[in-house]
Give the backbone structure.
Amino acid sequence: MSRIWTEGFMQVLEDIIIIGGGIIGTSIAYFLQSSDNFDGSVLVIETEAVSQGSSWGGFHQQFSIPENIQMAQFAQEFLGELNRFLSVEDKIVNVDYHSNEYLFLVENQDIPMLYSTNILHHQHGISVGLLDPEDLSQGFPWLNITDLAGGSLGLSREGGLNAERLRKAFRQKAISLGVRFQNGELIDIAKNNDLANAITLSTGQSIYFKTLVNAAGADSSRIASLAGINLPMESRKRQIFSFSCRMLLEKSPIVVDPTGVHFRHDGNLFYAGCVPPKDKDPNCSDTKIDYDLFEEYIWPILSYRVPAFQKITMEKARSEHYTYNVLDQSPVLGPHPEINNFYFANGFMGRSAQASPAIGRAIAELIIFGEYRSLNLSRFSFERMVTGEALFEHNALQ
Ligand SMILES: Cc1cc2nc3c(=O)[nH]c(=O)nc-3n(C[C@H](O)[C@H](O)[C@H](O)COP(=O)(O)OP(=O)(O)OC[C@H]3O[C@@H](n4cnc5c(N)ncnc54)[C@H](O)[C@@H]3O)c2cc1C
């Protein structure tokens, strides 16, 4: 932090302002402030304390884009050394990580994709088993395999954690290193020539900065628009329905049906979600639970796939929003090509928690060194929003 004269007044100049204290913003703040090559100030602005209440906190590795696989691998390395990274005053960091592999099921037309991603997985040293229908019926006798042509089962290093605990751990460590968090709602971004140089909060407070990072989750396109940038991202509602079933499945990975409907179990409860069909998936900000979506779309698919689910009791449901990149559902990372002190860390859909360590490290490297050092994520740059060159991930869960 330094001071500048502007409009006749002496003003504080923050080195970095991050908009968003979610898991992505806090991870970026942590990686910046923990770097030996950075000695500037980091201020995180957040509207309210957020919670990752609905996140499954799922971590899988079976992606179809190599960079997503590499980010998932770094997430596992990071979790393996969580205490070295995030412990404050030697207190143990517990994010409640538990192993649970993912099973992606495919129909005939997706067999070529299954094989090509399997080759990619082996090239990256991921332990994944290819299953044919007979393997599926032997391993998971409760599955209806009639229309299935195969599946891909993670054999290690997949699971889930409490994403809220991980966010808090990033936050506490970042604070211990000197990062400051401030409540406030960003309502304007001022520019001077081609650079953004100040934000205004709803209280009227202006804060000057050298670099601004947009980590505003589902609000990221609104934040970009304040700087005159069109970021084609929308807010999408995702719901998790939990239900009980009289039959307990002995051995159940997290199962992803070819339709994208997925479920996992935890104790006596099952949790299911989906990406709704396009005509039922508007840009939206309400959190109203849509039980019809479960009754009319999710449950018929579930009960076809697992006949034991024909008799279930609905327990509860939750809903939350995440950012949806309208172009290709992949993230946008790094500086804007013209306003190059405005950085994006947006569009992670249902993968923010597991992407957070790699994204924090990547954005910190870009800001500090002007380039990616550990993992080149330049294919996710803003340029493709201009060229329209889409980068689709085929094994995204949400
Ligand atoms: C149903 C569901 C299941 C999920 N499952 C998984 C999973 O299995 N694995 C996984 O990795 N991820 C999962 N996720 C994704 C993930 O955990 C969340 O989407 C995550 O909360 C997003 O993190 P974020 O940091 O990008 O944004 P957010 O947590 O939304 O944080 C955004 C921040 O921006 C701030 N902000 C916004 N606008 C302003 C403004 N104008 N001024 C100031 N601050 C502002 C907010 O206050 C907040 O601090 C799931 C998400 C959902 C909805």
Residues 19-25, 45-48, 50, 52, 54-58, 163, 185-186, 215-219, 238, 240, 273, 320, 322, 348, 350-354, 398 surround flavin-adenine dinucleotide (CB under 6 Å).
